Amino acid sequence: MKFVMPGGTGQVGTVLKRALSAAGHDVVVLSRHPAGPGEVRWDGETVGPWTAEIDGCDVVVNLAGRSVNCRYTPANLRQMMDSRVHSARVVGEAIAAAGRPPRVWLQMSTATVYAHRLDAPNDESTGVIGGAEPCVPGYWGYSVDIAKAWEREQESAETPHTRKVALRAAMVMSPDRGGVFDVLLRLARLGLGGPVGGGAQYVSWIHDRDFVRAVEFLVARDDIEGPVNLAAPEPLPQRAFMRALRAAAGVPVGLPATRWMAEIGAFVLRSDTELLLKSRRVVPGRLREAGFAFERPEWPQAAGDLVRRLRGHAVR
User: Fold this and answer.
1) CA angle, corner 253, sides to 266 and 231, nearest 5?
2) Long-range pairs, 240-244, Cβ under 8 A, ≥24
3) pTM, full prediction
4) pLDDT for res 314
5) What is the mean pLDDT of the segment spanning 138-162?
């Protein structure tokens, strides 16, 4: 099959392209800065010659969007919103205009769309959409607004011959350098892998190979459309999450960090504390109901696998 991946040069795109190419699929990445074979230029905002790649392809996986690993300044939040909404809009326009439209459009979304909560997990049918929670910073609601606008753009696209799925993905854990797992592991090895802000907030995640398998599963299942949570079935509190990571890495101690310490650390790292402090307790209701079986459903085993692969430089 031919896959077209707008915005596929980041960590998740690298994971997906590597696996799909190894499986024998033709993968084309749309990038603002194409740098190698199989990469085609686009600007993420307007139609252009790149639309020829979508006309006749089998699957579009739109991963485009400015990284959320930044300070949440008004300018950065606007870029996060615009890059997602504009790219989803123009992908929808390209699919609508195609003589041979793809049969499925997988649109990246985020588990951040759900509310900050500790009491119960969020699945697709009973989960609480965020934005109105008490006792959290007001600007956290903008991340939810971005997610909702992102999904709304895909939903409103006139693509009657193309099935649409919104991937409400948790953090994709892979051993690739510079990815989220690599960053967390470095923090643990520096002795900074303890609980943050008490550590009660939940962490949702998915192993990279289960992410790829879930994408392949959704491509094959013509009966599934709409939002789907891509998250392992066992989210866990941040303190337990980091404890398991330290155990996998052989790091005995992780210093705790208060909220104000997290603020300082996030400022130094040019990131934001929402990424550390929001409780994302997300479970894969629709995937499980459809019969998808996770290979790495529990974090201790998943972390052990990722550490071994990183040490052996085997990311495939």
Assistant:
1) 60
2) 240/199, 241/203, 241/205, 241/299, 242/184, 242/188, 242/193, 242/194, 242/195, 242/199, 244/299, 244/300, 244/303
3) 0.94
4) 54
5) 93
